[in-house]
Amino acid sequence: MSSSFAITFAQVLLQYGILFFLFYFLWKMGKSLSPALIINKQEDRAAGNEPDEAVLTILDGPDAYKGRRFAFRESLTVGRAEDNDLVISDNFVSHHHIVFRRVQTLYTVQDLGSSNHTYVNEEVLSERRILRNGDHIRIGMITILFER
Fold first, then answer.
1. Is residue 36 part of a domain?
2. E-state strands within the chain
3. How many helices (H) and strands (E) does the chain have?
């Protein structure tokens, strides 16, 4: 009797283990296929408060995030990885996709070796580029307006 109990108990454990991994797999798939979710680790601020700050505005992307603005002064990293300043959960965005930097009085954007490229005003970004007020930066399904 104890032998059949042990087999039954092992079968139940195996079934629950399989269910756990199935739910985990479905959760991971759902997370990776979900529409772009944007998280800003910095405080979302209105533009124009500081003379040396640049502002990024989401123009195209999921409706819930259109119009959101992100101000920064020195640098801002963008990608899917959690250690970016601006995290975009989009399968067409690399883990570390681009970085915006201030160089003296100018702002630049640089692609960090992304597999799906970065576009500035619909041109592929192949090297670090100085940004001008009104430039459009596209990564994945997101279009960002640069303002200064």
1. no
2. 38-40, 54-60, 69-72, 75-79, 86-88, 98-103, 106-111, 119-120, 123-124, 129-130, 136-139, 142-147
3. 1, 12
Q: Give the CATH number of the domain where residue 108 resides.
A: 2.60.200.20
Contact 98, 116 (CB under 8 A): no
* Domains in the chain, number: 2
Has residue 142 been placed in a domain? yes
Domain interval for residue 24: 1-31
Claim: this prediction has a pTM higher than 0.70: no
Q: What is the pLDDT of residues 28-80, one digit of tens each?
A: 766 555 544 455 444 444 444 556 789 999 898 766 567 888 888 899 999 99
Do 86 and 125 have their domain in common? yes
Are 117 and 92 spatial neighbours (Cβ–Cβ below 8 Å)? no
| Higher pLDDT among residues 78 and 10, named by residue | 78
Q: What is the largest CA-CA distance in the chain?
A: 81
